[in-house]
Specification:
By secondary structure, this protein is an alpha/beta fold. The protein has 16 helices and 17 strands.
């Protein structure tokens, strides 16, 4: 079997099942020697930012000399992107070999093993590969939610991280922030340290109460803990006023479940002006490389988790803040306000929370620039609010709407009418993504603007595939 054939088979596996299949997953993993238990497991959940947190953590661990595995989703171009060891994707040969082993087990199981779902299949493959590669740390991102996610099969992770929580997948996770947070809180384990984003008071209350009930030490990072030191549009440099030590930030809230006062949290740091906050001598100054303001919160979560891991690993504890910053600056996480060519940006924001974060970044990183927008969105997202947020962002002068290469695509006319309603734009409507990007480039050149493509990770993946950026 070839890699392409294996990928095609996996792509045809149902994404969801009506029945919870944890028992089946456990049996399959047990057959392969419970590979998920052979390394220190770092578990990351959240609505937005979890992939970035994983990437930052993986880079810092590797720079510290540790052998890492990284499991994230979704992929943008090829399925192999979802699993990496030492920063490198699994090879097509190894992918195909493990795929065939798993398929042989399922096909020949005489009914003992039910067929895994799409995500379970890839998770099993990743855990087998990580174990065989003798990794020391596995950085694992949840697929959806947390409580019922395949990745939550782990019983004793080294640390758990929960990023920003906002509205997405409401048909599965619930239609309130509290309900969504409750699903994410399912990854919290008794006695296992939790690091979490405190941007949402409602989510924070759910997470801290769950952690307290399980006796899990919790560190909460609030937007006001982040003092941005870099100038607008420059690579991020900030001071983490909580000190980044596990337990310090949490002292504000963990005892009562009540949040300290903060500005409305969307993941954008509500930063103190440089020089106005009082910094303790131990407050770290961190560089994150990215120009996206939302990466201040994500990298601070990764920093704090790394310092927590250092409590049980002297090799990690010996890393300086400058070394961790160097690792963060080395991260290239595709489609997160990524400049794929001069003045051409791709961002995978695909829900209201992500779009609010992107709008805040546009205000700083693209200050004073006019923007041509290429937009496409899946039809199961809250695209009305996403478009409303974009129309309220500064700098957009032209809009091109296009359609995803998916049955989940939103009708062009629907997208265009919303841009007309909320922003008085008259978008160009182009069905083909490649042609839409070419039109966006033409308009940007004509108006001296920046081109920004956003609305969906599927759109981002299509653009990276069309341009060949992913292969560079």
């Amino acid at each position: 079997m070839t890699y392409s054939e294996a990928e095609e088979y996996i792509n045809n596996i149902p994404r969801f099942t009506k029945e919870k299949s944890e028992g089946n997953l456990r049996r399959i993993l047990r057959h392969f020697g419970n590979p998920q238990n052979t390394f220190r497991y770092i578990h990351v959940a959240g609505t937005n930012g979890k992939g970035s947190v994983c990437a930052y953590l993986d880079s810092a661990l590797r720079l510290a000399g540790r052998r890492t595995g990284l499991f994230t989703s979704p992929h943008l171009v090829t399925t192999a992107e979802r699993m990496k060891v030492g920063g490198e994707d699994i090879s097509e040969e190894e992918f195909t070999e493990i795929f065939e082993e798993l398929k042989q087990l399922i096909d020949g199981g005489m009914g003992v093993y039910a067929h895994p779902t799409y995500f379970e299949w890839l998770y099993i493959m990743a855990m087998i590969w990580f174990s065989r590669k003798n990794i020391e740390y596995g950085v694992v991102e949840t697929g959806l939610g947390g409580r019922l996610d395949a990745t939550n099969i782990i019983e004793n992770p080294a640390v758990t991280v929960i990023t920003s929580i906002s509205y997405d997948h409401m048909e599965i996770l619930g239609d309130t922030i509290e309900m969504i947070a409750g699903e994410k809180a399912g990854i919290i384990k008794a006695g296992v340290p939790l690091i979490c984003d405190g941007s949402s008071p409602e989510a924070e209350k759910v997470l801290t109460e769950r952690a307290r009930g399980l006796g899990a030490p919790v560190t909460v990072i609030h937007p006001e803990d982040l003092e941005i030191l870099s100038a607008p549009g420059e690579p991020l440099r900030y001071r983490l006023h909580s000190g980044g030590e596990a337990g310090q930030a949490a002292e504000k809230t963990a005892g009562t479940g009540e949040a300290a006062p903060r500005s409305a949290g969307t993941g954008e740091a509500a930063p103190k002006s440089a020089g106005t906050g009082e910094a303790a001598p131990e407050d770290p100054v961190i560089e994150a490389g990215s120009r996206a303001v939302y990466q201040a919160m994500n990298s601070s979560l990764a920093y704090t988790a790394f310092r927590q891991l250092g409590r049980a690993d002297a090799q990690l504890a010996g890393q300086t803040d400058a070394q961790i910053s160097s690792a963060f600056c080395a991260v290239r996480w595709p489609a997160r306000f990524e400049e794929i060519a001069p003045d051409i940006y791709v961002d995978g924001a695909h829900n209201t929370g992500g779009m609010e974060m992107l709008a805040a970044t546009m205000k700083t990183a693209l200050a004073g620039r006019s923007i041509v927008l290429v937009f496409a969105v899946a039809n199961d997202k809250d695209y009305t609010d996403m478009i409303r947020i974009l129309c309220g962002a500064s700098g957009i002068c032209r809009v091109v709407v296009t359609q995803l290469e998916s049955v989940r695509r939103t009708d062009l006319r629907t997208e265009a009418e919303l841009f007309e309603k909320y922003g008085d734009f008259h978008p160009a409507m182009i069905y083909d993504i490649e042609s839409a990007v070419k039109e966006g480039i033409r308009l940007a050149g004509e108006t001296g603007s920046v081109l920004l493509c956003t609305g969906s990770l599927y759109l981002a993946g299509s653009i990276l595939r069309i341009t060949g950026v992913r292969d560079k």
